[in-house]
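Researcher: Please translate sequence to structure tokens.
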Amino acid sequence: MSDEKKLPSGRLGRLVRLAELGARTGIGLVRRDSEGAAERAAEILGNLRGVAAKLGQMAGYVDGLVPEEHRDVYQRSMKTLLSAAPRSSSDAVRRLVEEELGAPLDRLFSEWDEEPIASASIGQVHRARLPDGREVAVKVQHPGVAKAVESDLQNAGLVEGALAMMGTRRLDSKNVLEEIRTRFREELDYTLEADRQKTFARAHEGDPQIIIPPVIDDRSGRRVLTTGFVRGKSLDEASRLPEAEREEICRTLWRFVYKGCLVAEMFNADPHPGNYFFGEDGKVAFIDFGCVQPIPERRRPLARRLHRAANDRDERAFAEAAKLMLETRGGAHEMRVLGYIRRAFEPQFASPYRITRTYVASLVDHMKEAGKETLQAADDSFVPMPEGMLFMNRLQFGFYSVLARLDASVDYAAVERSFLP
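Model: Translation complete:
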């Protein structure tokens, strides 16, 4: 994939690039069956960055989004978007850092690597060193990406593609559409991300296996975020470790996600494999807190009831909590929703459980089928997806896909009992 390509930020220019792939919608970009088409899609989405690249990233690791017969081709091609999307020029990055932090770069950092160590849909990361000797990672927003994201969010086809990849399509209320736009716009504000990173660090303080790098406040701003530097194995490398080590990693990941949901009452809704660095003894370092979904206050006790019921294998209590949390009102739609959420909680009900790629794909398929049935339904039992649930789907599909790569049998119910109040 080529580097330092000019980022098209206007709506028309971005539509023209998408039209090169023969599709105006994000979901349409992953329906062709040749390796050349997949590689071309990865290149164009990478150069577009923004929301368009996020769709390609999801296709690169979430099982079930791409038809089974095309999956390997697309996931192989889209892997480049997970850690090596096209970069912005070193001159443009330097200018942005100096403008944002109000000082020459060589005064801000005693060392600065011009070559980014990672580049993704919104920004790229440079290794640097502070004058006091601390090694840091500096995330710098791609110049022009804010306008590109806004253009994407005005593209109804791309937003529909994002909704389809997160488990819903053509069933969306105005509130759900606004929710997706709000979360993606928030990713442009690194000041907000810094605050959230600190919140997650406090929530997991004292857990020796969860590593969240500290934020360096005086080297951070709205478009620049400096944190401590972390190292570790990639997901591909971790997936080749002995099973006992993979089990410990899965426990750490589960604790990070669901302690965040059930105790800290918010979750990181971007379970991108590049956001995890795997160390020894089940240690995992977590980065990138740009897309975070707070859990509405009225739903917090219901979420804890739901998880306790699953851990206790109490089907009746689980169904009652699910109805309240999802605000259903009986009828065929309620049955479809309950069927999906019960399947999504199989790892707790059937602990110890081995999450597989087939299981994850079945969840995605189940959600798609439920959506089709709702569109065709004759009754009026449909209710809109409650606030926050859209991004919970994104978390579940992506997070379970990560666990499926680790391929370990884990007692997830016991993990939850260790922290549930």
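Researcher: Any highlights?
Model: Residues 243-264 form the longest helix (22 residues).
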